[in-house]
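Whether sequence alone determines local backbone shape is best considered at the level of individual chains. The sequence in question and its structure tokens are set out directly beneath this paragraph.

***
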Amino acid sequence: MAAIRPRSTVSAWQPQVPGIAEVFHARFTDHAYPAHVHDTWALMVLDGGRVDFALDRERHGVGVSDAVVLLPPGVAHDGRTVTEAGFRKRVLYLDTTVLPERLTGAAVDAPLLLDGALRERVHGLHLALGGRDAPAERFEAESRLAFVGERLRGWLAGRPSPESAVPARGRGTAVRLRELLDARVVEGITLAEASAALGGVHPTHLIRSFRHAFGLPPHAYLTGLRVGLARRLLLAGAGPAEVAVAAGFYDQAHLTRHFRRYVGTGPGAFARAGRDGFSGG
């Protein structure tokens, strides 16, 4: 009996993250793209199977590995399945605020980037972007996108990415950013706003300075502050749905996801424990 092929599936959405025009997740079992162009950069990782594609009339093949595929805007390419099992892919369509068009030639010359660290960064960015039915962790996604863009630009410019570079006066910058986050726990802040408020410090330098000074990235620090605020509100008698909005989360589900990670129990159980005289860790 012939094996039953898994069905093809597609999920696509536009996150509220500057620089990302579209997120596209797909599983194809029998599909061939005709030659076409995009007006954005296409950054792809494979999670299963193998795909064959032509870029500017030169053919390439890639399977599941540390490789990241980068296709530039305005250059014709196609794509097709190679095996009966098809392939699974995740794609980010990035505008030219992330990568300038002048880097197109370098991407045509080397569209396959064999870089495990870059693939991990892209994977982390996809996780932060949530899904079509789940909102993006915007501050985290912006931070992760900044590092993805930095590493891509390093590849295309032919120079290594400054993995551990911390700018001069990094401690002072980190302290100022912490003060800014402390003052904007509920409303939050975008990475661009933080950079502008701190004198135009480059976003990746800003994040590196904070991590170097305090041992965690600024988006994780902000989430911790929000969970702490939620704990206090729950113990004061507010309900989880009310607390979610008051503490800066999108909704109750968003609060619950983070609350469980940080506290080890859900907000409802935590509130009940508080009423019984025990508030956990």
About this structure: The first strand starts at residue 9 and ends at 13. The two ends are 56 Å apart (CA to CA). The chain has a mean pLDDT of 89. The chain is about 40% helix and 20% strand.
